[in-house]
Amino acid sequence: MAAEPHDLSAARAVLDAEPPPTTPVIRIRGGFEILEHTVPTKWLLRPYLEELVLGLLYGDLGTLKSFLALHWTLALAMKGIPGLYMSAEGRGLERRIRGWCLHHAPDRPPEKTMLDLPFFAIEQPLPLPQTDILLAVEQAIELQAIPPKLIVVDTLARYGGALDENKAQDVAVLIAAGDRLRLKYGASVLFVHHVGHQAKDRPRGSYALMAATDAHFLVERPDPAKLAVTVSTGRLKDSESPPPFSLQGKVIDLGYQDEDGQQVTTVVLEPATELVLPARREPTGKNVQEALGALRGITSGTFSMREAQEAIRPVIPDRRRRSEAIAWLQKNQWLTSSGGYLRLEA
Predict the structure, then answer these.
(1) In this structure, are 192 and 329 located in the same domain?
(2) CATH label of the domain that carries residue 326
(3) Which position among 88, 143, 178, 244 has the lowest Cβ density within 10 Å, counted as fewest Cβ atoms?
(4) Are residues 179 and 255 in the same domain?
(5) What is this structure's pTM?
(6) pLDDT tens across 298-331, in order?
(7) Judging by DSSP bridges, how do beta strands 335-338 and 215-220 pair with one another?
């Protein structure tokens, strides 16, 4: 059974001072030694979330991105993979977890379901880049004695403290904090973030957020009147980006009423029966235009993802930018997939 949860302030109280710096051990390996052992890609959630990555999950207000991040964390916990969900708002977490349990384990009381799952949460905003705060978080994790394999930071802005997300040097400090947690616990760290005020297809703030993270997930809600959302993977660290997928929100009655006598509900996400895409947009970015032009040079009607990558390589040498361009074309219905092959639409 998991240890009893501890209050974060109590954990911070035991930190009298920052420990003295130590000299890191640096090991240099030759190329032959590196190739002695094959290192395949390892997954937390195939084919979307790899192990040991810094990820960025971003979307506009109302796109259910926090519901998705919580869903991933709980789904992993259901498989016995520990997760830490850092919720700056805190409010509503109980309802969301209860609803998720009622949906995925309807024959058991939610409390009993959660008793068996290695899921943990911090429910307060913290200036994560501050050394004393980061040490306190680590102390709280160690008191649980179960190192997490997924750490969700929801949201990046609320855990950034006084940092300016528009400045690359400030973003670098927050990324360093995420990297420290990632390497210390062998975990993937997923930052939940908002899109820009004008550019709804990219995260708000400095481009350093995109450049310094290994996996990007854009969440969109094509029709605000419906609970369907679509997730597009911009890039992955060591793998090709999978095609977009959609999730359907379902309203769950929690079985009790609020102080006004109204039934309390929440939303859970489940796979949608079909892909729900936003209205097709014309490509305006240089990389997307270059990719589209290169793909038009493929004479066959259908082609594999590898063939698409090879066709685009001469005009976009960087693999990550190629993957981002392909993901954009898929999301905007210039590329469709069927039976493992791609087709370029007119």
Answers:
(1) no
(2) 1.10.10.10
(3) 143
(4) yes
(5) 0.78
(6) 878 788 888 999 999 999 998 888 988 888 888 7
(7) unpaired
Task: Name the amino acid, one letter, at 311.
Answer: A
Q: Cβ of 263: how many Cβ atoms within 10 Å?
A: 10
Q: What beta strand segments (E) does the chain contain?
A: 43-45, 49-50, 54-59, 83-87, 119-122, 150-154, 188-194, 215-220, 228-235, 245-257, 263-271, 302-303, 335-338, 341-344
Structural domains in the chain (count): 2
On whether residue 30 sits in a domain, the answer given is no
Q: Is residue 19 included in any domain, yes or no?
A: no
- Best CA proximity match to 103, nearest among 253, 211, 262: 253
Instruction: Categorize the per-residue pLDDT at 9 as very low, low, confident or very high, splitting at 50, 70 and 90.
Output: very low
Cα–chain center distance at 330 = 19
Residues in the chain: 346
User: Same structural domain for residues 283 and 245?
Assistant: no
Please state whether 319 falls in left (phi above 0), alpha (psi between -120 and 50) or beta: alpha
Mean pLDDT of the chain: 88
pLDDT of 292 strictly over 60: yes
